[in-house]
């Protein structure tokens, strides 16, 4: 796995020649990423016979391009209509949608595209350069360490609760309680399922996601004429290309933010089983912690949009690392890529980098070229995509509800999931009207089961010794980091108050 | 886990998806086929799968039914009901499936029967289900990562007498888990089995060093020989001597008398009530499924799965299946305390 500049130059040159595969895959990925319930994984599954019929290299380039662009696509409805296409985009609407409501949808999309592209591009290049070290991450981040990583994400609830402590914590704990519904991971004992078999496999994420965000939003916006505020509508009517350029400028001005939040995504992505949702929430929480203006998060703050979008695109290249190094896919899409490589007789593992370096590094070259081409193909579309927000809520709300209910049905094909999405919609609507934060509930639903899984696993490993959570050096360093990230905002706030008083 | 089942799976999905666009009209114009002829089967077969799409059951099901449909002259429609170690799928099948022979279950008898023995869910009784058409016979094994310091199962056992060995397993109620626990009870070695929810995560747990070793069915590990080493087999013989070298037979090595712990034993299931009501339909099912085993096209399909061919059965015997289910039920009852963490 040594760095060979000549090999990389040749790889990139060669991959650019496949632009005719990459560009259609980018557009397809954007569409499937934007539809709730669909994802790169199930689209690649559907198209697998097509990719298998292609030359192996072309097929792989196609899948990688689809994978990368679908990640970006999931952010589009999250920003424009508060519907995250996947769990990985669940943190995107926190600041993306308020921007849209202010009539800055076009800007928000441009910020999202630039953060995604540069975050994805940077982490892909980093992965190429640091593969030997990155491949070791999974050997150090075990259950104990992952408990703390989960807590980084969950502590975002505390940040949200900072605005209204009691309501924020109630919403967060309510979400965590919902997240623990289902069979436990050790003894497979169903808990809190109310006898519904459909809940034995945990609360399904997509119905919870679209219900809490999209359906409740559709209920709420139907009370007005438009999802935009009056000023927002005026701003949208005046919006031209300048808005896109302003979005690009704003995102680029946060270049350092893009770098470090995308690296969070990369590191989390390398751990098999971790995912974009964790990365996005952890990045958002960290971004808020170290921000000079934490009070602006949740109101349409640029950094609050840059962080989750950079991080969830940073995950993309990370999930390929364990696949190529130890033959264990980091996520569902990586698993399908493994199928294609196996189909062509390629055996994963460290030997691949010596036996067939073009194939081992090829997916990363394809990903980098995809991100590069996305700058030119997607950014100009922000202006046109954002026009959807001017559609009257008379039409928009029923469309959102029907669209998302289908999305809730698709992954498991249970009618139950459509009812569940509606139930979450009602919960979300009541939460909005009574000042409880839906994002706090959702964080609990998404991260709660993962936290429980790692916690129970760690307890099983230690044979019930709770002190196992402090048993690893890396874990302890992370605990200190977590404590700091919870304390620092208050310390910063105190310092600012002192400075202002002085 | 993520093998060429995708090939079959996705080809089907792709074809389904493509056909949806252009096929509806064409299908409407087709002449009536045997699928709609009088007699059994009079409609497509529905198959309840108690696991997620994409696992070994899915892979094997698609391989088998791609040939079986030639003989039954109808298509198979799989539906997936994962959750609670197979219980969701079993309860759905026993609860809502028709008992005219058109609705079947397809699962992995070993872990699923064992799970029933351990949990005894109230929704169904496993004796109300009859298995047939067993496709594979994949024994449970003990394996380590390629960088592991353990070179033999004996070393693991010896170490287990000094400290607790962490063993990654797919789930608690699993023949391979039962094997490692029985080995510990027999030798005095202390094994702490940690369920990692599936073969992929178990392999990851072992490969990354979080677990000292793992216990799973052999197929998925044997195919990844460069990353893992198989050290022990819970069977009377090594089914893949050319592929798995240096592994010991646990019974022989440690003087035990465990029955073969077949961790991968995928087969179809049908409600006993369906057999009682329509014995002729069940005969058609068993007769036609038995023909699949001898079909040369079936061998070609199996080869494409990349699973070692030695693990697929050449025929299926009802008596053997009944014996296997009785064995696994008996040993499950015997080791129930270990599988439920009570001792």
Shape of chain B: globular
Q: What amount of the residues of chain B lies in strands? A: 15-25%
Distance between the termini of chain B: 31 Å
CATH topology type of the largest domain in chain B: D-Maltodextrin-Binding Protein, domain 2
The appropriate CATH architecture of the largest domain in chain B is 3-Layer(aba) Sandwich
Alpha-beta classification of chain B: alpha/beta
Low-confidence stretches of chain B: 1-38
What distance lies between the first and last C-alpha atoms of chain A, to the nearest angstrom? 56 Å
The percent range for helix content of chain B is 40-55%
Q: Can you describe what's shown?
A:
The complex is a heterodimer of chains A (502) and B (343). The mean pLDDT of chain A is 84. Chain A has 502 residues and is mostly helical. The termini of chain A are far apart. In chain A, strands 1-2 form a two-stranded antiparallel ribbon. Chain A has one domain. Chain A has 26 helices and 2 strands. Chain B has 2 domains: 5-137 and 265-334, 3-Layer(aba) Sandwich (D-Maltodextrin-Binding Protein, domain 2), CATH 3.40.190; 139-262, D-Maltodextrin-Binding Protein, domain 2. In chain B, β6, α6 and β7 form a beta-alpha-beta unit. In chain B, the strands form 2 sheets. In chain B, strands 5, 6, 7, 8, 9, 10 and 11 form a 7-stranded mixed sheet that branches. Chain B is globular and about 65 Å long. Chain B is 45% helix and 17% strand. Chain B is of the alpha/beta class. The longest helix of chain B is centred in the N-terminal third of the chain and has 25 residues, at 5-29. The chains are: A mainly alpha (502), B alpha/beta (343). At the A-B interface, α3, β1, α19 and α25 of A face α1, α3, β7 and α7 of B.
